[in-house]
């Protein structure tokens, strides 16, 4: 890759890991409220960019193109819900690499099973590396360092998936305090007990479910941009207005809580709204003059950034093991891409 492409991919990877950090920090409140706010701001902030692109390129969109733009919104809505639920229970440095790694793994397996692709020895070794990395990163380790990261406020968690009672979707027993399983997102009070292995296991399960939807919308969007010729920028942007509309009935009936999430997590909302689309746009820019086989695996260096951010910003533990496991996941993704 050229130095310009490398710079774009690295900035995109850092942007992707950073908006996941913001999502983790905001995971102490109901997922749909944070996601809806991010979708609202992303829709508004990037609308001028998309409008200019449409006016310049004047794409010819078929009925199937519109269907696939709506479908990516549904798939990514589920992706965001499971991701936030995983962050509510587990560390950034656990959920993020497992989600990204399992998504790449499942996409590769889908190619083998559904598209009759036949990876060579290097690709098979890559699949084994990802499996080993996911297994290693999911092992229980020492607790995160206590203490609340500066500037993060806690909003009582009264909802998780689609506004269900706290812990209901994640399996938290009734009556458990809202912050008991919130993890390092908003920081536990000094001297708080370590997160239970059961919570880490549930977080890993949510991360794998997140990976299922990563693989699903990756294959879905690939068909949209390669077969239907939907502009990638338009396909990527479509998810945000769809999520905005889909979650509106849930969040707008509790405007007081929505306002509370906005007050408490305004920097995280704005940061995720800017960086989530930006990470994708930067990758598209790199793809405009660089082979996808080079860009796609290179961007997954974001999992290393995610582990480092988890340690630096949230005080998460088990850094050497999780960093080594994340490196194995990245190596596996690269091997699948080239093999």
Number of strands: 0
Gyration radius (Cα, Å) is 19 Å
Our measurement of the CA-to-CA distance between the termini, rounded to an integer number of angstroms, reads 18 Å
> Please, how many domains?
1
The succession of helices and strands, N to C, reads: HHHHHHHHHHH
The global form is globular
Which spans of ≥5 residues are poorly predicted at pLDDT below 50? 143-154, 156-160, 162-195
Largest sheet: none
Mean pLDDT: 80
Return the structural class: mainly alpha
**Residue fraction in strands:** under 5%
Give the helix tally. Answer: 11
Could you estimate the helical fraction of the residues in percent? over 70%
List keywords for this structure.
0% strand; mainly alpha; 11 helices; single chain; 339 residues
Task: Give me a quick take on this structure.
The protein has 339 residues and is mainly α.
Structure, described:
The protein has 339 residues and is mainly alpha-helical. The protein has one domain (3-338). It has eleven helices and no strands. Helix 2 (31-57) packs antiparallel against helix 7 (232-251), helix 3 packs across helix 7 and helix 7 runs antiparallel to helix 8. It is globular and about 50 Å long. Residues 143-154, 156-160 and 162-195 have low confidence and may be disordered.
